[in-house]
């Protein structure tokens, strides 16, 4: 799909992978809506790229619908959805004190990363399928952000790995479900990327993480995620698959 003049929604778009993706699509001529719980940061980025900022909690249907309405009024119905919103967290199943991990800690991460992403997809997909198809028969493209933790979850990542693994498992059935409407679904599973979370780590820790990547021996760049997202939208044959974007990294147990 040619994004020139198309309406693009990026969740978690105010920082990290989402922000760079929003910038790249804007440079390609798309009309970008930056959705984020951090409205102040979303406004700053939207002003930078000439888009629209919408405060949005992806787990709250009313919040999503309000954001979609604002984006639709400004840019028209969504043709591309890039799901970057998510949270992290690690906690051992049984702590040093012998206490089990609180169920709320598991539920919170799964609710945002898996349920929230699905909530966003179901609402935007309904908007996509109602649109006229392009000359290629396409009505929309949905990109999901998973993680290599879906495959290589480390100690303490039970909740995070489960949430990201759920997104991997969603990919093919979603693509099959929406194929009749000409809507494609793809998932990207990034490895270790230079995101705001890793920026906060000491330089020596960053270097240690980078050294674990076979090639290139550095942390991934947000621009590389954005480049792949743009290619997925451009390439009509990419559908129903998960792409590991990790430099051949396989996470160790710890």
UniProtKB/TrEMBL annotation:
Ketoreductase domain segment(s): 6-191
Keyword Protein biosynthesis belongs to the record: no
SMART domains: PKS_KR
PROSITE patterns assigned to the protein according to its UniProt record, in alphabetical order: ADH_SHORT
Gene Ontology terms for molecular function: oxidoreductase activity
Alphabetically ordered keywords of this record: Oxidoreductase
Oxidoreductase found in the keyword field: yes
Homology family: Belongs to the short-chain dehydrogenases/reductases (SDR) family.
Protein name: NAD(P)-dependent dehydrogenase, short-chain alcohol dehydrogenase family
Species this chain originates from: Massilia yuzhufengensis
């Amino acid at each position: 799909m040619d994004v020139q003049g198309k309406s693009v929604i990026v969740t978690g778009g105010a920082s990290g992978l989402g922000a760079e993706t929003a910038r790249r699509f804007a440079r390609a001529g798309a009309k970008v809506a930056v959705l984020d719980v951090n409205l102040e940061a979303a406004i700053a980025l939207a002003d930078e790229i000439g888009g629209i900022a919408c405060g949005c909690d992806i787990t709250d249907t009313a919040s999503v619908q309000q954001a979609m309405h604002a984006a639709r009024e400004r840019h028209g119905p969504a043709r591309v959805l890039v799901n970057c919103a998510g949270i992290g967290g690690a906690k051992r199943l049984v702590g040093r004190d012998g206490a089990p991990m609180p169920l709320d800690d598991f539920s919170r991460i799964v609710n945002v990363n898996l349920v929230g992403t699905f909530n966003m997809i179901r609402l935007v997909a309904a908007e996509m399928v109602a649109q006229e198809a392009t000359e290629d028969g396409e009505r929309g493209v949905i990109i999901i952000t998973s993680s290599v933790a879906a495959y290589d979850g480390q100690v303490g990542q039970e909740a995070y790995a489960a949430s990201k693994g759920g997104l991997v498992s969603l990919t093919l059935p979603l693509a099959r479900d929406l194929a009749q409407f000409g809507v494609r679904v793809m998932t990207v599973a990034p490895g270790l990327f230079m995101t705001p979370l890793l920026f906060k780590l000491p330089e020596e820790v960053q270097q240690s993480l980078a050294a674990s990547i076979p090639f290139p021996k550095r942390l991934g760049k947000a621009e590389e995620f954005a480049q792949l997202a743009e290619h997925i939208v451009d390439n009509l044959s990419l559908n129903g698959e998960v792409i590991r974007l990790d430099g051949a990294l396989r996470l160790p147990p710890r």
